[in-house]
Amino acid sequence: MVLGRIPSTRDLRRIATRARALSSSAATSIHGIHVFHCPDAVGIVAKLSECIASRGGNIHSVDVFVPESNQVFYSRSEFTFDPVCWPRDAMEAEFRKLSKFFNAEASVLRVPALDPKHKIAVLASKQDHCLVDLLHRWQEGRLSVDINCVISNHNRGPDTHIIRLLERHGIPYHFLPTTSGNKREQEILGLVDDTDFLVLARYMQIMSGRFLESYGKDIINIHHGLLPSFKGGNPSKQAYNAGVKLIGATSHFVTEGLDAGPIIEQMVERVSHRDNLRSFVLKSENLEKQCLAQAIKSYCELRVLPFESNKTVVF
């Protein structure tokens, strides 16, 4: 069509046909995520882009990280594609070819509309704030997980808010009282066998190396940011009495080292002389809830990759 000329009927039909085709393509497009970790080399981004674009996919974002200290390549791509033109199994096969070509350590594909949600179990002790927050976020659809069960070493009565919520959604609650000589780990392993990862929502027990090895999958933990200065009982009161001005929370992967696993998420907030002990504790608990939920969300969206021996890349 020439600029300045009144479009003919034929021009208008061609424009309408193109618009319908684009609209149809957009309507059938779904969202995919791909993460890649391999030795650094020239042309990795180009090959990844070509792989997606050659099958009609449209890249929305690409995050890349190549550390100065080690020539390795990390990327996370988000794209849309038509599953009719590019079936899920064909897509997996093509990314697998790229993985072999670049000798990749990890190549993970996720299509949220087609793939099952991550199956998790939540472990908690007496404190409810993180457990309640996760259950409500899950109920509202803000966490892309299926909760297989909740396990606790604290007995909650049948008429408590948590038990009623779990019963309403058909989520089993397992009360496994622990002692210093019996952490009930073998029973926990039997309950969590069919999960993709575990969440410790203020579970105040240390997991043994044998448990971690037997489970063999990721475990996400949350703790307050008052360590290591304020250890032992009632750390919030200790910190409050010491007059600290900054509090925080840390979510990390569980390792044999106590609270020493690779960090996924951290959050901080200022406190002041205007805070009393109650407001101090509430601020600390709110940080723990937000920090744990964000760590789970990032993990499910393939934003968390292992880096070196005890770090993470979080896109």
The number of helical elements comes to: 9
Mean pLDDT: 90
Task: Compute the number of strand runs.
Answer: 13
SSE ordering: HEHEEHEEHEHEHEHEHEEHEE
Q: Give the strand line-up of the largest sheet.
A: 7-6-5-8-9-10-11
Structural class: alpha/beta
Q: Kindly state the percentage of residues in helix.
A: 25-40%
The biggest beta sheet is recorded as: 7 strands, mixed
Structural description of this entry:
- The chain is α/β, with parallel strands linked by helices.
- Helix content is 35%, strand content 27%.
- The chain is built from nine helices and 13 strands.
- The strands form three sheets. Strands 7-6-5-8-9-10-11 form a seven-stranded mixed beta sheet, with helices on both faces. Strands 2-3-1-4 form a four-stranded antiparallel beta sheet.
- The longest helix is centred in the C-terminal third of the chain and has 24 residues, at 277-300.
- The chain is globular and about 75 Å long.
- Mean pLDDT is 90; it is low at 21-25.
Describe this structure in a few short sentences.
With 315 residues, this protein is α/β, with parallel strands linked by helices. It has nine helices and 13 strands.
